[in-house]
TrEMBL record:
SUPFAM superfamilies: Class II aaRS and biotin synthetases (SSF55681), Putative anticodon-binding domain of alanyl-tRNA synthetase (AlaRS) (SSF101353), ThrRS/AlaRS common domain (SSF55186), Translation proteins (SSF50447)
A GO biological-process term: alanyl-tRNA aminoacylation
Statement: the UniProt record of this protein carries the keyword Zinc: yes
Protein name: Alanine--tRNA ligase
Length: 878
């Protein structure tokens, strides 16, 4: 007992190395072989295709320490982090795997030996309890007869509501994929020995903690109702490093193990909190680990997908820092402590420490500007609650305006015993989405998770036209035998010339046809290992098993290919100019332009943009032959090929060589020579997220069109300015100077006009029992000046009620002010409500000041007269 966490990790690997397992490095937190997963959430993710029989492996036995993240979907631990002893966003999963080698008996024996033998973890046998799937008699007998676990300590776990294969002890990766019965090993934290299964099932005070899950991968779940047997039986195990460390270090919480205590103590130094059991300290310690490893895998904060998850975790940590009184920027300063505490697992962090710190610091500075204001709004709303439920529209307002995810708001409310209205939040979110979304074409609504245990041969590198057989047809998300004229659907073929959207490159368009039947392909996408041709049948009928021809639009493909080759040149030029820290974060390549996203934290000035353009265009003028080779991944690494993602690749990869200037792994289509590109022009650069830049560019004829359009604009502007084009800059400078001078004069005149209006209107205010009342309508008056006038009149008249309306074109704005000595009788917001409710307007504010606007200007005189009567009545009765 009492081994360090880093030693426990190494002991696990050493044990399975002795058992002839090959140690495989952890894969990236971003899986590249599973579109259903946002982040790697289990040790088996990188081996999914091997389990399914879609990919062969060199090693029948492997062991790993896998970086995992659980923040959403089925495995969502985020809201529990810090509040329980065991939940984390980031954790390390210890695993051993067998692919068609040993199965149930050896997997169980290995686990038992590691956990209980004196040479290894030496856990007392009487502290271990076992669960098995109720219908898995073989596993029960191994535990009971071979390992000799008493029957009272082996718990059979059945199916929910008698639905077969729907049990806590029938493991499945998700809604589809490899699955099978499992057996779990639990540790008993209790002081007194128990042999009662009922006590285990109750598990009061979390006495029993699951430490190891052994999954017998026997099946593939196709859907909720369909499961098929796999040809090869395999073993998938998982044991959380943090959990087993808490047992071996004799502590009752993962947060009390050595690596967490090191982090928690360093965090406490930034605050006044010295209680190391403080929830916020635990949350921050967990989240700094998660953020460091996510950024190390080249994910940056953004408002989409992986980046959004990272941003949520960062903001949750910063908010907890605020709760314990940390007002300085601190989060990025914790990265060195993560590296020191994590042992060999921190190797991926060491080379990227500065980048991780820079990203966290930038995000921290950005969020800190809105955090305090958002919390002020939240606290104010909580004070005004009539019950213990925060309305959903407030939760959404905090999310939309201040970047507070709903779970972050829920964290703050939880400590005050306030619940949030989740349904109301989703409704407000949906309403905004409905207002902002444009109606999308029908074919884009097809389910991207359609999965066939099948494949399609792509012949499009060599052929533009292919004879093929229709294997499947989908219409309105349903599999059908035929498709008729004017129906929209997806056609799947046994082989195709159509390139499916991948690697940022848009899919091909073209035709599938035979005799008088013709299907227009408007989009091509991947569905697992097969390819879907999405479009519309414009003539005839097509049926499953029919022979057809498929033919791509060659001009369209050529334009896309030119842009793809130009993207490779651009990537290399960026790295040459800005440094090797440039990492591709995404791209979009179509027939008309290319878009390239990459990691870079600094500003890119015009000089560097022009330098990048020049480098690319030199390579284009050199008319270099673009060479494409297939080779082993190991050979590609020796060629120093750029791999776009730090994930696993197939054993054979496709490498695109543009001389020695650019060497990249790529499955896309390309030009034959760089000279075919003609010309590249960068048309925009922007920042799409913290530390992420975006460049858009055009090539060839599109670049020429861009220059001609720019030239036409310059000629039009020079004509309007009545100067030659090379004199435009000086002319514009003079005009700007003149405009500033005139604006200054206007401000002076406006100030004088405002002073006059204040004097005149103050004299026209009438008195009711010592209160001055002023109701006045302006026409086409400056709105900012209206606010100035209202402030100055209020200050001059002291006890007063002011209503100022400004009518402009077909709408109006209104400002109301009520001095604070009157707000118990009359409020500015109530006056605004009387106006906007009758004029199709909007408005609001506080008791002493409010503003509004509306459209129905014709009834303004009548409304103001009624308000005048209402104010008189209120004041006389006060």
């Amino acid at each position: 007992m009492n081994k360090s966490t880093n030693q426990i990790r190494q002991d696990f690997l050493n044990f399975f190395k002795e058992k002839k397992h090959v140690i495989i490095p952890s894969s990236s937190l971003v899986p590249n072989n599973d579109s259903t997963l946002l982040f790697t959430n289990a040790g088996m993710n990188q081996f999914k295709d091997i389990f399914l029989g879609l990919k062969k492996t060199k090693h029948a036995r492997v062991t790993t320490v896998q970086r995992c993240l659980r923040t959403g979907g089925k495995h969502n631990d985020l809201e529990n982090v810090g509040y329980t002893h065991r939940h984390h966003t980031f954790f390390e999963m210890l695993g051993n795997f067998s692919f068609g080698d040993y199965f149930k008996k050896k997997a169980i024996m290995y686990a038992w030996e590691l956990l209980t033998s004196k040479k290894w973890f030496n856990i007392p046998k009487h502290r271990l309890w076992i669960t098995v799937y109720e219908h898995d008699d073989e596993t029960y007998k191994i535990w009971n007869q071979t390992i000799q676990i008493p029957s009272e300590r082996i718990i059979k776990i059945g199916d929910y509501e008698n639905h077969k294969y729907n049990s806590d002890n029938f493991w499945q990766m998700g809604d589809s994929g490899p699955c099978g019965p499992c057996t779990e090993i639990f540790y008993d934290y209790g002081k007194n020995a128990l042999n009662s299964s009922s006590e285990f099932i109750k598990n009061e005070n979390h006495r029993f903690v699951e430490i190891w899950n052994i999954v017998f991968i026997e099946y593939n779940r196709i859907s909720q109702t369909q499961i098929i047997s796999l040809k090869q039986k395999s073993i998938d195990t998982g044991m959380g490093l943090e959990r087993i460390s808490s047992i071996l270090q004799n502590v009752n919480s993962n947060y009390n193990i050595d690596i967490f205590q090191t982090l928690i103590k360093s965090i406490s130094q930034f605050s006044k909190v010295q209680d190391f059991n403080n929830i916020s300290l635990k949350v921050i310690a967990d989240h700094i680990r998660a953020c460091s490893f996510i950024i190390a895998d080249n994910i940056f904060p953004s408002n989409e997908q992986h980046g959004y998850v990272l941003r949520r975790i960062i903001r949750r940590a910063l908010s907890h820092g605020y709760k314990i009184g940390i007002k300085q920027h601190f989060f990025y300063k914790l990265v060195p402590n993560v590296i020191r505490s994590m042992g060999i697992s921190a190797n991926i962090l060491k080379d990227k420490q500065k980048k991780i710190e820079d990203v966290l610091k930038s995000e921290e500075m950005q969020f800190s500007k809105t955090l305090e204001k958002g919390l002020q709004v939240l606290n104010k709303e909580i004070k005004n609650l009539d019950n213990q439920i925060l309305p959903g529209e407030i939760v959404f307002y905090l999310h939309d305006t201040f970047g507070f995810p709903s779970d972050l708001t829920e964290d703050f409310c939880r400590e005050k015993n306030i619940k949030i209205d989740h349904d109301g939040y989703q409704k407000a979110k949906k309403n905004q989405k409905n207002q902002s979304n444009l109606k999308k074409p029908f074919y884009k609504n097809y389910n991207n998770n359609i999965f066939f245990n099948d494949s399609c041969i792509f012949e499009g590198y060599q052929k533009h036209k292919t004879k093929s057989i229709i294997k499947y047809i989908f219409v309105k998300d349903q599999s059908v035998l035929n498709i008729t004229k004017n129906e929209v659907g997806i056609i799947y073929l046994d082989k195709t010339s159509f390139y499916a959207e991948s690697g940022g490159q848009i899919g091909d368009i073209g035709y599938i046809y035979y005799k008088k039947s013709c299907f227009i392909v408007e989009k091509t996408k991947k569905y697992g290992n097969t390819i879907g041709h999405i479009g519309k049948l414009i003539s005839g009928t097509m049926t499953v098993n029919q022979s057809v021809y498929n033919k791509i639009d060659k001009l369209y493909r050529s334009s896309v290919s030119l842009n793809h080759s130009a993207t490779h040149l651009l990537h290399a030029a960026l790295r040459n100019t800005l440094g090797d820290g440039v990492v591709q974060k995404g791209s979009f390549i179509c027939n008309s332009y290319l878009r390239f996203d990459f990691s870079y934290s600094k500003l890119i000035d015009t000089f560097h943009i022009q330098e990048i353009e020049n480098i690319v265009n030199v390579q284009i003028r050199n008319n270099i032959f673009i060479k494409i080779k297939e080779m082993s991944f190991e050979e590609a690494k020796t060629k120093k090929a750029t791999a776009l993602f730090e994930n696993q690749y197939k054993s054979t990869v496709r490498v695109v060589f543009i001389s020695n200037f650019s060497i990249e792994l790529c499955g896309g289509t390309h030009a034959k020579r760089t000279g075919d590109i003609g010309l590249l022009k960068i048309i925009s650069q922007s920042s799409v997220a913290s530390g992420i830049k975006r460049i858009e560019a055009v090539t060839g004829q599109e670049a020429i069109n861009y220059f001609q359009k720019q030239d036409n604009n310059i000629q039009d502007i020079s004509f309007m300015l009545k100067v030659k084009s090379f004199d435009m800059k000086e002319k514009i400078k003079k005009l700007i100077h003149q405009i500033k001078y005139l604006e200054k004069k206007i401000q002076e005149f406006q100030k004088k006009e405002n002073t006059h209006q204040v004097k005149t209107l103050s004299n026209n205010a009438y008195d009711i029992q010592g209160t001055k009342v002023l109701i006045h309508t302006f026409y086409n008056y400056d709105h900012k000046s209206l606010r100035v006038i209202s402030d100055q009149i209020t200050e001059k008249l002291k006890s007063s009620i002011i209503v100022l309306v400004n009518v402009t074109n077909n709408h109006f704005n209104v400002i109301t002010k009520v001095t604070k000595n009157l707000i118990n009788f009359i409020t500015a917001s109530s006056i605004i409500n009387m106006i906007v409710t009758k004029t199709n307007g909007k408005g609001g504010g506080k008791k002493h000041i409010a503003e509004g606007r509306g459209l129905n200007i014709n009834i303004i005189p009548e409304i103001l007269q009624n308000i005048k009567i209402w104010i008189n009545k209120k004041l006389k009765n006060k």
